[in-house]
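Reproducibility note. Readers wishing to regenerate the assembly model reported in the main text can use the exact inputs given here. Chain order matters: entities are listed in the order in which they were concatenated for prediction.
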Amino acid sequence: EAQVTQNPRYLITVTGKKLTVTCSQNMNHEYMSWYRQDPGLGLRQIYYSMNVEVTDKGDVPEGYKVSRKEKRNFPLILESPSPNQTSLYFCASSFGKNYEQYFGPGTRLTVT
Amino acid sequence: GENVEQHPSTLSVQEGDSAVIKCTYSDSASNYFPWYKQELGKGPQLIIDIRSNVGEKKDQRIAVTLNKTAKHFSLHITETQPEDSAVYFCAAMKTSYDKVIFGPGTSLSVIP
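Running the prediction on these inputs yields the following structure tokens for the assembly.
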């Protein structure tokens, strides 16, 4: 089954404790992206990747890191999480930037 | 950069009525306009998209219209059903720009 998976689905952590949210797709997509969703603000792009070893900042990259060592995986790293990073996070993938994006089920992160 | 506005933020309709959601974009070079539906607890899913070389596209009860001169596009849902209740997001993209800009979303409620 074609899908985007994210782990964990729910995470509660404390300020400053490094964490990684994994994202994997099995559709051989080149374009992958991370979004955060906050009430009233919709979906905002954090980082995206056009292909392996090619990543770039979206609209809200501060406090986040990503890597794309393999085509199928695109982990999101929070080196020192803060409470303002409490949000619902989605990973997405597509054949290219101007094509349908397939979204993962989301990761709800709470930073206390 | 691109900016996408979306109205209304919430919309309630009676089952069987039509629903219209409107988006405006700022960059006249944008050429791809997808619409995503997000059901509760799930990631967004593409329902219809339109490219700038056409003015209207229809898929059963869903249609999208694009007015490039006015820089706005609209989602039309006819004969609404309770399962249409969800949050809808529009987005605007252009070939020469790698980021994806979403509107803030519209929460649609269809009352049986």
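We highlight two features of this model. The two ends of chain A are 36 Å apart (CA to CA). Chain A has a mean pLDDT of 95.
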